[in-house]
Amino acid sequence: MPWQICRAAEQDLMEFLQPGYGVLFLLSFSAATILPFGSEWLLWLMWSQQFAVVPTLVLATAGNTFGSYFNYALGYWAHEQLQRRGRLTGPGWQQAERWFQRYGVWSLLLAWLPLVGDPLTLLAGILKAPWQRVWWLILLSKSLRYGALYLIYFYI
């Protein structure tokens, strides 16, 4: 009996390690950076091929969330470089700062939006938004995004 449990666990692990899961994570990560990728098509393709729903949702959400965290960290690091070079002045940056001050860190709830979310997370880093709040808002935004994709695919 114990060998049957081990064999079942091994099969589950091997299924989880199929290339599709790793590719989904990497594509979701890349899609959240400034690279022009999308991950929805692969997620839907995997569901159509009977990949497990929970692992695909978790990996797509995690990859996309970590991609946004990468943008935030890149912006946080870039702040020092831009400040040293005097590039955080001028009307463009003043307008971005006013916009971010007006809508605040809560604007990161829009981090899931294509074309808008990537610059938002980068801007949050450049403007040194508090990472704890950034972390939760991005996670919530990305979770809601992939939850909505799940509902669209399976119920609409």
SSE pattern: HHHHHHH
| Overall 3D shape | elongated
Give start-end ranges of low-pLDDT stretches.
none
**Multimeric state:** single chain
Question: What would you say this structure looks like, in words?
Answer:
InterPro entries: DedA_domain, VTT_dom. The chain crosses the membrane at residues 21-47, 53-78, 103-127, 133-155. This is YqaA family protein. This protein has 156 residues and is mainly alpha-helical. The protein is built from seven helices and no strands. The protein has helices at residues 2-16, 19-32, 40-48, 53-84, 91-103, 117-126, 131-155.
A few lines on this structure:
The chain is elongated. With 156 residues, the chain is mainly alpha-helical. It has helices spanning 2-16, 19-32, 40-48, 53-84, 91-103, 117-126, 131-155.
SSE topology:
Layout (H helix, E strand, L loop, with lengths): L1 H15 L2 H14 L7 H9 L4 H32 L6 H13 L13 H10 L4 H25 L1
Helix pairs in contact: 2-3, 2-4, 4-6, 4-7
Keywords:
156 residues; mainly alpha; 7 helices; VTT_dom; transmembrane; transmembrane helix
